[in-house]
Amino acid sequence: MPSTQDRGGEDARVARTRTDVSRAALEVLRTEGFDDVTHARVAESAGYSKTTLYAHWPTRLDLVGLALDALGELPHHPASGDLRADLIGELTVFRRSVTELRLDRLVFGLAQSATTAAAARLRDRVNAEGQRPLRELLGQRFSGARLEAALSMLTGVVTCPSLMFGALPADAVVEAAVDIVLAGGR
Amino acid sequence: MPSTQDRGGEDARVARTRTDVSRAALEVLRTEGFDDVTHARVAESAGYSKTTLYAHWPTRLDLVGLALDALGELPHHPASGDLRADLIGELTVFRRSVTELRLDRLVFGLAQSATTAAAARLRDRVNAEGQRPLRELLGQRFSGARLEAALSMLTGVVTCPSLMFGALPADAVVEAAVDIVLAGGR
């Protein structure tokens, strides 16, 4: 039986492995995409054996979960109290995250692979966290089906050009969307 | 040198092969997704050798192009002249297409793989054809950045729940979105 000292050393090693693998998984996710977050690819990138990865994180979703841990909280716009400015600010931060974090690939990969309860939980965690500030802002003006519609519409202003054309919306389009939604919500 | 008769027989065989392979590629695309439209998988499904497929259609994008040929024109709502009813009708048909044709997988697969000019042309063909009626309807009320915003927003009402949660919007959400956009466009 290992001494406390030995166990402490082992725990530290496992924690270091987790940190290394989390960072490698996030890097693969960001630069290569969801489909490439495999045990072989992450092991290669992190400098560990596939056997080590399988022992601690047996499924691909475990690796994606580690990547999300490394990602931490998604960036959000600090609220100023001016609804129009806050909506534009939040969408602008979201637009940047789509590019920098490849959020579109991540969300789509999760949605397509969410055929198990574990995958659905992971998907809902990312999506709920991602949409929370936008939902709260829109909740000042909308409720029920109109809130769901406004939330999907403003998310779509950023994600549709990205998903359909690999492009991001211009500032003028983001502002026009917020103005249409706010005018339509009166 | 083959006689005219022989060439006619050869042309007919090629045409039959093309039809068979197009249908198989579309079936794989619809039931299994973009990543599965490979020479191996389509050849197996169509009952031809991989060698035959590579000889006629050397790239995966050629196979996706064949699938789109088999798809034909995307279904659209026949316009009635009532803008609100026509927008709701078009989004409802689009919502059904997302389920029946797996349009979301197709569009995302094309967007992610559109790193070549050929892929970009294929992507733009599908997206332009898909959004054309909605763009024309919204063009009655919007132009410029406001038109792009309204187009992305109404596309997003259908695609965001699908891409983020694997779910489709309720009728009430589609109607609320159209009402917000039309009220915001006054």
UniProtKB/TrEMBL annotation, chains A, B:
GO terms for molecular function: DNA-binding transcription factor activity; transcription cis-regulatory region binding. Keywords: DNA-binding, Transcription, Transcription regulation. The keyword Transcription regulation applies. Pfam families: TetR_N (PF00440). Residues 15-75 form the HTH tetR-type domain. It comes from the Bacteria. Coiled coil: none annotated. Residues 38-57 bind DNA. This is HTH tetR-type domain-containing protein. It comes from Mycolicibacterium psychrotolerans. The lineage of its organism: Bacteria, Bacillati, Actinomycetota, Actinomycetes, Mycobacteriales.
